[in-house]
Amino acid sequence: MTAVPQAERPATHLAARAAGRADADPHDTDSAPTPTTKSTMDRDSRALETALAVYVRQVAGQLGVPADAVTYEVTDTATAYIGLTDRAAALPRRDLMLVWDESLGWYVAVEPRGNDRPPVICHLGGEIAPAPALVARFVSDVVDGHSRGRLNPVSPKIDRGTLAVDMAKSPA
């Protein structure tokens, strides 16, 4: 099974909920960056969706997570969700998720119950799209209890075309 783009999935998407955007209107352009032209934005968003699909599958592969536990979307905000199979020693009864956001990068959080905002366990600072092997090491450290942190933006937002190119260059 492969990851399914947002257009082909139901509206209740875990990555959107995980990023705290479940109530966001995907057609609301007030908060979206103002592109120079609509075709540039569409082209950059398509390029980012393609690169994100490959990148997230590479991260999931490094983690040993099956494709059916992976979702991603590129709308007003690009996000990805990977349901983790491991649990943190400190939270043995709670499922964990790895979430990526184009402004925040990667973070591990506890799967929310209902519409609760997911408690973030740790945020991977640095690059917005680090190598998949680095993300896998980060998750392993978090699960083993060696990392804790706060959720902070990683860097100023870069345009989607540049982000897509950066993801495509990221070694598996």
From TrEMBL:
Domain DUF6292, first and last residues per copy: 55-141
Amino acid composition bias (Low complexity), ranges on this chain: 7-19
Pfam families recorded: DUF6292 (PF19809)
Compositionally biased tracts (Basic and acidic residues): 20-30
Segments of this protein annotated with the region Disordered: 1-44
Superkingdom: Bacteria
This protein's name: DUF6292 domain-containing protein
Species of provenance: Actinokineospora auranticolor
